[in-house]
Design brief:
There is one protein chain. The strands form four sheets. The chain has a three-stranded antiparallel beta sheet with strand order 1-3-2. The protein has 15 helices and twelve strands. It starts with a helix and ends in a 9-residue tail after the last helix. The model has no long low-confidence stretch (mean pLDDT 87). It is of the alpha+beta class and 360 residues long.
């Protein structure tokens, strides 16, 4: 455990130095200055510093002799470091890809410092790109205007048909889990334990052909999105899925009421009684309950009652019949569309349906 910690400390210290190089005789004072503690070789079972450092060939490389002896990061360690930095750069891009010719620009925007390829122990960018482990990035030659270039992107293995089907099932499970959370969202770090508690089984991302949870969420963009909330990342339902969930919840509130209708002014209070939290109006992009109900017209609608505006459920049978009639009428048209006034008139004469634009 101590040696692993020491190894990480050396990497962290050398990363801060130009070219990741340090004169051997400066190691002890530099370590003390950097970490505020002495480097005691004996704590790691050695009597000489050189023997200790030579026991870490996968991380440290000692070059030169005598007064010109230097310590630098081993090539394997540099490749790991470069790979991590490159993946961070790619994941900061909207489509997780960029052109090789823009590498320096993307690096500077990501790490807020100019690129010095010598800090990775090589003279040319292509020298280290070829050493990146397989199935990490994908490169493709492209032609940009008059010159050729290379597109670098995050490697993605194509899912099998079975994995695609599992991912669709996972999307439904995410909706089921988040519908019980206030604001229909959950902290990214709490998702796995919450999933285990709710479904009674582990969430294994490998079952979906992924290696990381974030990749699995990125595979269901119509269901969830990730937002930054200060230092934390939140997993939240997309607006469309959220409206669907809230619509079903409000429909449930109305159906279980004694009169099978709820006064509009009491809807938010009744919703809170049933679900233990307020309606997520802000997430729905509205400021008042009335505006929220307008978004939920597939589940509930507002009618004028003796005691004011009341929220009632929508007759699903009526909607299905209406949709069927609309489809039938449009299919009969040569180009599949009609003038709105003519459409409303035909719906009335053919099916006896008085249709309003809001219904559509």
């Amino acid at each position: 455990g101590q040696l692993i910690t020491f190894t990480r400390e050396i990497v962290d210290m050398l990363k801060t130095l130009p070219g990741c190089k340090l004169a051997f005789y400066k190691f002890i004072p530099r370590y003390h200055h950097h970490f505020g503690k002495q480097c005691r070789v004996a704590d790691y079972g050695y009597t000489k510093l050189k023997d200790l450092l030579e026991s870490l060939p996968h991380v440290i490389q000692i070059i030169g002799e005598g007064a010109k002896t230097f310590i630098t990061l081993a090539h394997k360690a540099q490749v790991r470091r470069f790979t991590n930095d490159l993946l961070k750069m790619l994941k900061n891009q909207p489509e997780k890809q960029f052109l090789l010719s823009s590498f320096s620009l993307v690096f500077e925007k990501t790490f807020f410092k100019p690129l010095s390829i010598y800090d990775y122990g090589v003279c040319h960018l292509t020298d280290i790109l070829t050493d990146i482990p397989e199935n990490t990035i994908f490169t493709e030659d492209v032609n940009e205007a008059t010159k050729s270039d290379t597109m670098i992107s995050v490697f993605r293995r194509d899912q099998t048909q079975e994995e695609v089907m599992r991912t669709r099932g996972f999307a439904k499970e995410v909706v089921e889990l988040l519908r019980h959370s206030p604001d229909l969202s959950i902290c990214f770090n709490k998702f796995i334990p919450a999933y285990h508690q709710h479904f009674g089984r582990q969430c294994r991302v490998g079952s979906y052909g992924m290696t990381k949870l974030i990749e699995l969420f990125e595979a269901i963009p119509d269901t969830v999105e990730i937002r930054e909330d200060g230092e934390e990342r939140m997993v939240q339902l997309t607006k469309d899925k959220m409206i669907w969930v809230v619509g079903e919840q409000v429909e449930c509130v109305v159906k279980t009421s004694r009169a099978r209708c709820v006064a509009l002014v009491e809807l938010e209070e009744e919703y809170q009684k049933m679900f233990g939290h307020l309606m997520p109006l802000g997430r729905m992009g509205v400021g008042r309950v009335e505006e929220a109900v307008e978004l939920l017209q597939s589940w509930v609608r507002v009618v004028n009652g003796k005691e004011g505006k009341m929220v009632v459920t929508v007759d699903r049978g009526f909607i299905r019949t209406m949709a069927s009639n609309v489809r039938r009428l449009l299919v009969e048209q040569d180009e599949g569309h009609m003038d709105l006034v003519d459409f409303i008139e035909k719906m009335a004469t053919r099916f006896g349906s008085h249709i309003e634009v809001e219904m559509l």
